[in-house]
Amino acid sequence: MQQPSSEFFAEKLQQSKEQFERTIDCKHTEFDDLYPYMNEQPQFFWYKRYVAWQDLLTIVRMAEELDIDWQYQFQNSQISFIKNKVLDAKVLDEWYGKKRTEA
């Protein structure tokens, strides 16, 4: 069986990171297309953030299991958030390296 390449995982990781960041920025994602009737529900934004976060954690876990470096695509603070695995307000506020209120 052929092992997936590090380039493949780098691309999938970048896509997953972009989807998660789009949820932080409240932008349209692929998930919105799956549940268009939910867009008006306030809890939907949290739900799609959790789904994108779990996707990111899954890709990272698979990369680690295959000994593929994933950390180079992230800032040190983001790596720490990923390793802690818990999606909370701090992750959303500080994902880009500064408080969102300062943006």
Kindly describe this structure.
By secondary structure, this protein is an all-alpha fold. The chain has one domain. The protein has helices spanning 6-24, 30-34, 42-65, 76-84, 89-94. Helix 1 (6-24) runs antiparallel to helix 3. The longest helix has 24 residues, at 42-65. It is globular and about 45 Å long. The mean pLDDT is 89.
Please tag this protein with its features.
103 residues; mainly alpha
Which word captures the global form? Answer: globular
Taking the sheet with the most strands, its summary is: none
Kindly report the average pLDDT value.
89
Tally the beta strands.
Answer: 0
Distance between the amino and carboxyl termini: 47 Å
- Count of structural domains: 1
Tally the helices: what do you get? 5
Determine the oligomeric state from the structure: single chain
Q: Kindly provide the radius of gyration, computed on alpha-carbon positions and rounded to a whole number of angstroms.
A: 14 Å
Report the structural category: mainly alpha
Please write the string of helix (H) and strand (E) elements: HHHHH
What fraction of residues sit in β-strands?
under 5%
The percentage helix is 55-70%
Extract low-pLDDT stretches.
none
Outline:
With 103 residues, this protein is an all-alpha fold. The chain has helices spanning 6-24, 30-34, 42-65, 76-84, 89-94.
How do the strands and helices of this protein lay out in sequence?
Blueprint: H1 6-24, H2 30-34, H3 42-65, H4 76-84, H5 89-94
Helix pairs in contact: 1-3
